[in-house]
Every structure is written in structure tokens, then in C-alpha cells.
Amino acid sequence: MIDDDEFCLALNNGIFVGPIGNLNFCCNNSNLKFINENSNIIEEYNSPETKSEIDQGWKKSKRCHTCKNRESLGLYSFRHIANSYTPKDYIVDNNNRKLLLLDINFSNLCNQKCIMCNSNFSTKWLADDIEITKSPDVEKLRWKNLNPKYKRLTDLQLNQILELVDHHTIKMWIKGGEPFLDDRLIPFIKKIQDRSPTIQSEIITNGTMMTDLKINELNLLNPFAITISIDGVGNTYSFIRDFEWNTIDKNFQNLMEKLDKKHLIGIQITVSRYNVDKLTDIIEWVESIELKYDRKVMINITMVNYPNYLQAKYASNKILKRGLRQIIQIKKDGVLSNRGKYFDSKCDSLTKLYEDCLKNRPKLEDQKENDRLANILSMTRSNNFKNLF
């Protein structure tokens, strides 16, 4: 019997291949190592260093601090998500590790410049991150050894990942960058589904590429889920993602209308200081589209962990209180509560987060400093940024 409190399926049987070659057990893990174009992913997956980390367990691992912090606050963590995929007949066997959870980013190539993102995940940030390297605040705005550049997995490395996949592989997340900018995406998914016919595949995309041609290609695949990142509607979306909202709204509705109903459609909301009180706007937009197309939309909620100065706790008291009232109302709403336990758990996590933010406000000096850093970053939305440093 597995002790769920001591166990993490992602640590034991997962691999995360990041957009700049960072190799972890999951997307919330601190980087185990970085690979280059000559690295063999199969060898890395089975390396002594990897097995040593697994033997420690998630509670002792120094790389699992994100889930530890979230769970210490009573919040839902990625470990909980990972463990929800644990097979009933699962047996721990670290000497013969089957790949059960695959989280893959083909590259950091992207066509959006989200305010909470950086050049590790989006090439649209490359020029601005080069400017940030000139700033005396580079370590606060980003990190000490900021090295903006374009990275991608080689075809050989994609084939190595394919070799790790078999009928045991349960779940695959594909992220970016923007995955639909890579022509290898759909052929790769097809090969994965051939090797593991029952795999639950999920593509996380910004939704900018939802053309009829792409949708027709997707309709030929086995069932999967596609999740569009929606952090607000109207001007809120445009500011956060530096992209025209009307285009995304049109693309999403095109997807709702034309994607075969064997596939699931969802949205992912990333909560930051800029959209704490915008959840109702997003939910109302989702409901109107569900009604129009007679089709359910899954809703996932995640929170900004980095950069720190964009976290929800740096929103004002007024905004946090308004955000908290919205969540309480959403939880009371019978229609929305029917979205399932997962959505309810996310709302519970948000409630606890906002209550904690209101109870433990940042010190004045801390608030001022983080406001200053956020204001510097917001200038990337104007033409003045290049003259800032």
C-alpha cells in the first residue's frame, strides 16, 4: 500500500523536459540538470543521479520546495495532481522505472510576451531580456545568470522520448513556448498515441494558431485535451499577454465549433497581481460560449510563483477583497459547482491564498520594492523600455 502523504508519482515515474533543456521530474521541481543537443534523454532518465534523488523521497528532496510550500498552506499542489494518475496496481520499482508522466516542451519559440513569462519560455522576450541584463536590478527582475537565447529539442531527442513511452505511460502534457509553432507537434502526438493508445494527452497553448487547417489535423488524432491560456478578457488579457483579445476570442469560438467533440477543451487561468479580481469576468465569458456551442469547457487555475513581485499577495487590499468575494460567490453558485471536485479544490486553494494574503500583508518597504519591479516590467508594454537602462 502506498502512503499518499509520502509518495509522489512525478518523482518516481515522471520526466519534465523544459524549453531550454532543463531536465526535471516535473514542472514544479527545481532543475535537476541541463541538457544540450548532445545529451541522451534515455540515459539521463535512468542515471544514478536521478535514482539517488528518487530514493530520498519528495519530503527530503531539496527540489520539491514548491509543493512543500503549497501544501504547508493547505493548498492543492502538483504532487496531488500527479498522484491522481497513480494506477490501482502500481508497485514502486526504482530499478525498472516505467515512464508514467511525461511533461514536454519542444522549445521556447513563442509569439506572445506574457507579463509573468521570460525568455526561457518565450522568444518574444529575448530582446527585452537582453535589455534587462543591463539593469542593476537584473537579479531581482530575472536571475543572476540571465542568458536569453533560442533553444529547441533535437529530432533525435524527441525520438529518445518516444522510446521511453509505452503502454504504461498514462499522461502527457505538451507545453511551450507555443507548441503549435513547431511542425513536429502533431506527428509527435500521433506517434505517442500509437505507443500508448490509452494515454491522456493535453496540449497547453495560447490559442493563437487555431486555424481551420490546424483543427482539421487535430480531429484526426485519438481523443486528447486542449487547454487555452486565458488570464482575463478584454484589456486585462491584452495587457497580461501583450496580444489582441478579439483574435483569441474568435479563435476559441472557432475551436469550440469545429473541434471534434471526442476531444476536450479547457482554459487555464494563471492568477497574478493583475487579475486577482477578474475571475468572474472569465467565468461569465466561458459560460456564454458554452451556451452558444452547447459544449463544456474545463477550467484549471494556477498561480504565479515566479517572479515574486507578480504574485497575488502584492495586489492591493481592495482588489484582494473583491477577488475573495468573487470566489465565495462562485462556490455558492450551483451551476459552477457542478464543474467537479478539481475546480472546487482550485477555488478552495484560491480562497485560502487570498485570505492568507489579506491576513499577512507585505511590509511597506517590501510592497514598495515589488511595486517598483512590477512597474519596470510593465514598461515592456511601451516603447520606452529600451531607454530605461
Task: Give a short summary of the structure.
With 389 residues, this protein is an alpha/beta fold. Helix content is 42%, strand content 11%.
What does this 3D model show about the protein?
By secondary structure, the protein is of the alpha/beta class. It has a domain at about 125-150 and about 205-385. Helix content is about 40%, strand content about 10%. Strands 3-2-1-4-5-6-7-8-9 form a nine-stranded mixed beta sheet. The radius of gyration is 21 Å and the shape is globular. It starts with 8 loop residues before the first helix and ends in an 11-residue tail after the last helix. The model has no long low-confidence stretch (mean pLDDT about 90).
Show the helix and strand layout.
Blueprint: H1 9-13, E1 14-17, E2 22-24, E3 33-34, H2 41-45, H3 48-56, H4 65-72, H5 78-83, E4 101-105, H6 126-132, H7 138-141, H8 155-164, E5 171-175, H9 185-195, E6 200-205, H10 212-218, E7 225-229, H11 235-241, H12 245-258, E8 264-271, H13 279-293, E9 298-303, H14 317-332, H15 334-337, H16 341-359, H17 364-378
Parallel strand pairs: 1-4, 4-5, 5-6, 6-7, 7-8, 8-9
Antiparallel strand pairs: 1-2, 2-3
Question: What are the key terms here?
Answer:
389 residues, 9-stranded mixed sheet, single chain, alpha/beta, globular
The number of distinct β-strands equals 9
Low-confidence stretches: none
Mean pLDDT score, rounded? 91
Strand coverage percent: 5-15%
- Radius of gyration, in angstroms, nearest whole number: 21 Å
Q: Which structural class do you get from the secondary structure elements?
A: alpha/beta
Largest sheet: 9 strands, mixed
Report the helical percentage: 40-55%
Number of helices: 17
Distance between the termini: 58 Å
